[in-house]
Write a structure and sequence with these properties.
178 residues; mainly beta; 13-stranded antiparallel β-sheet
């Protein structure tokens, strides 16, 4: 049947694809990974075929899609040759959400990280999954750190803002995260 192809996974189960083909290449569909697969559970979205570094044609997640991971995490957004790139939303196993720019599968550019059932939120620049550059961290108690971050830590270039005000209360160069 043209809408279903099966391929054996490394775990012995079968990876199942249901979807649309064009010129015998996947263009859109759902991939279901077998129970026990090391990383993925399910992907739904677009595909494109490219030649890999070994000269073989290979179908990649490419364009908009949604993937569920075995860990309980998920990603919805743009893919480039199987890797998140462009705008997307990643939900971690613990419910923390990152919405923003991705490059090479990592948070890169501008984005927001929100903790579940909490006021804690970071909005600002990211580099290789680290808060890096200008940003604002709002903590559970309502305090705000507005300033520069380097590799996930606050720098001396910023200020604390008391809850409900725009008044700087002190500078803290410790770089401690809360």
């Amino acid at each position: 049947e043209r809408n279903r192809r099966r391929k054996r996974s490394k775990t012995g189960g079968k990876i199942i694809f249901r979807g649309n083909f064009q010129h015998d290449q996947r263009v859109w569909g759902v991939v279901e990974y077998p129970e026990g697969h090391a990383k993925y559970k399910r992907y739904e979205g677009h595909f494109a075929t490219f030649v890999d570094k070994h000269g073989q044609e290979r179908s990649y997640r490419h364009g908009h899609g949604h993937i569920d991971f075995v860990s309980g995490a998920s990603y919805e957004g743009n893919f480039d040759r199987g890797v998140p790139k462009g705008q997307g939303k990643y939900v971690y196993e613990d419910g923390v959400e990152y919405t923003g720019a991705f490059d090479k599968g990592k948070s890169n550019g501008f984005g927001t990280q929100q903790w579940p059932n909490s006021r804690k939120r970071y909005t600002g620049h990211w580099q290789n999954d680290f808060r890096h550059g200008q940003g604002e961290m709002v903590y559970e108690d309502g305090q705000v750190w507005r300033g520069e971050f380097q590799y996930g830590k606050r720098t001396a270039n910023g200020r604390w803002i008391a809850p409900g005000t725009q008044t700087a209360t002190n500078n803290d160069a410790s770089g401690n995260t809360r």
